[in-house]
Design a protein that fits this description.
292 residues; mainly alpha; MetI-like fold; 0% strand
């Protein structure tokens, strides 16, 4: 009996040692992935404060002094201020369209059963795999025939539509986790469907709504292919297209540090939005993706 107990104890000890080793290797792997992911961002930030001779001499060294004038040249070389304004307008319009369209549609598909409801939901889920770049030619021809190219607001509305499939899929999954008892109690108190949606469901689905808004806003903020086709006028370009133009210009002038400064300007709003809403983002994706 003692030999069996000792053997069992050794087995438990080996299992614990193996688990500790696996945890250590997993953490080491995650640390390595984190360093690989963050290093280009950190390198871009500190390179934006170097002078061009410093960067040409050693691209990976730290700056000897802070060259803030690089950011001024970034604004002067390309119309970054106007690009920022256009991107901000695109984000605002997109959020308005997404909130007005996605929330009611998701609520109906999550709560009501009618002829074709499953087909409609399946259509949205299938549309997740159809990217706008796959149908860019008909999109451009249709927008151009309607006179909606080189206009920020129609571009933002078009991009919002491309976000509908995944947003509706996520919101339907999230709304299904909300108990029907709240709606039944509201109906007893005399609330109609619109009041139930706006005063009961929407506040309770705030993490999901925040998740959808953040993902959609970051998508249009970083969008390149659709903006490249739909916005060819220099005064209507968004930030990614403006940065691309700046990249071409700085390639001729060899003013790479100004390009890095422009990239930092683009990164700041995205990082700030994620830092503020990361709790809602993780909660919304978990609830919508697992229980949907």
């Amino acid at each position: 009996m003692n030999a069996m107990e000792h053997a069992h104890a050794r087995e438990i000890e080996r299992a614990k040692t193996k688990e500790i080793a696996l945890r250590f290797l997993l953490r080491l792997f995650l640390m390595l992935v984190t360093v690989i992911t963050l290093y280009p961002v950190v390198w871009n930030v500190y390179s934006s404060f170097k002078t061009n001779p410093e960067f040409m001499q050693n691209p990976y060294s730290l700056p000897s002094h802070i060259a803030v004038e690089n950011y001024g040249r970034a604004f002067a070389a390309a119309d970054i201020g106007l690009n920022l304004f256009n991107s901000a307008i695109a984000v605002i319009i997109l959020l308005v369209v997404v909130i007005i369209c996605v929330i009611p549609c998701s609520y109906v598909l999550a709560r009501y059963r009618f002829f074709g409801s499953r087909l409609i939901l399946g259509f949205f889920m299938a549309a997740i795999f159809i990217k706008a770049t796959y149908i860019m030619t008909p999109l451009f021809l249709q927008m151009n025939s309607l006179g909606l190219t080189n206009k920020v607001i129609p571009y933002a509305a078009l991009f919002a539509v491309t976000q509908f499939p995944f947003s509706i899929f996520l919101m339907v999954g999230f709304m299904r986790t909300i108990s029907r008892a709240f709606e039944e109690a509201a109906m007893i108190d005399g609330c109609g469907n619109f009041r139930i949606l706006t005063q009961i469901i929407a506040p309770m689905a705030r993490p999901g709504i925040m998740t959808v808004c953040m993902l959609s806003a970051m998508a249009v903020w970083n969008d390149f292919p659709i903006a490249l086709v739909m916005l060819t006028d220099a005064k209507k370009m968004t930030l990614p297209i403006g940065i691309s133009s700046l990249y071409i210009q700085q390639g001729y002038y060899a003013d790479w540090v100004a390009l890095f400064a422009a990239l930092v300007i683009v990164l700041i709003p995205t990082i700030a939005a994620f830092a503020v809403g990361q709790r809602y983002l993780i909660q919304g994706i978990s609830a919508g993706g697992v229980k949907g």
